[in-house]
From TrEMBL:
Database matches in Pfam families: RecX_HTH2, RecX_HTH3
Keyword tags: Cytoplasm
Source organism: Lacibacter cauensis
RecX third three-helical domain: residues covered: 104-152
GO BP: regulation of DNA repair
Residue ranges constituting the RecX second three-helical domain according to the UniProt record: 57-98
Protein family: Belongs to the RecX family.
Compartmental location: Cytoplasm
GO cellular component, one term: cytoplasm
Name recorded for this polypeptide: Regulatory protein RecX
Gene: recX
Keyword Ligase: no
Length: 153
């Protein structure tokens, strides 16, 4: 990514801007620092520094990520959890972040997606095919089987 190798201080400044612009997870920042041409020891040291200075906070990142994906993209818990795992966020932090979604909002969103999809499938006369399409859609959005079955019945 970077042609010239940055000094530790330059990398620290760039990483601070990177984290201040938007919440980041540890793995994203680590990748960025390696992209600056730093060695493992320097990367670890800078990560610690960023955490101490509160530029980097995995819990804050997870809560914001969860809220954003749920509100904007209307993802279910399964998909959000999967994405956070991909970003190497700890299981404890993932659980905590998912708790920020209220049951009422979760069910309301699932119901809304169900109704919208049902509207699109008006022309589908075979009820089994319609149910299958509804189910597949909600699964793809990351909703649990229990939630989907509840909506279908």
């Amino acid at each position: 990514m970077y042609k010239q190798q940055l000094t530790k201080e330059q990398a620290h400044q760039k990483a601070k801007h990177y984290c201040a612009y938007q919440e980041r997870c540890h793995s994203e920042v680590k990748e960025k620092l390696y992209g600056f041409g730093l060695r493992k020891a320097d990367v670890e040291e800078l990560l610690s520094k960023l955490i101490e200075e509160d530029y980097l906070n995995e819990e804050r990142f997870a809560v914001q990520f969860t809220g954003g994906r749920f509100r904007m993209k209307q993802w279910g818990r399964v998909k959000i959890k999967y994405e956070l795992k991909q970003k190497q966020v700890s299981e404890y932090v993932i659980k905590k972040a998912l708790k920020t979604i209220t049951e009422e909002d979760y069910w309301a969103t699932a119901q809304k997606l169900y109704d919208q999809k049902l509207q699109q499938l008006k022309g589908e006369t075979n009820q089994f095919i319609r149910k299958k399409k509804l189910s597949d859609y909600l699964l793809q959005k990351g909703y649990e089987h229990a939630v989907i079955n509840e909506l279908l019945n």
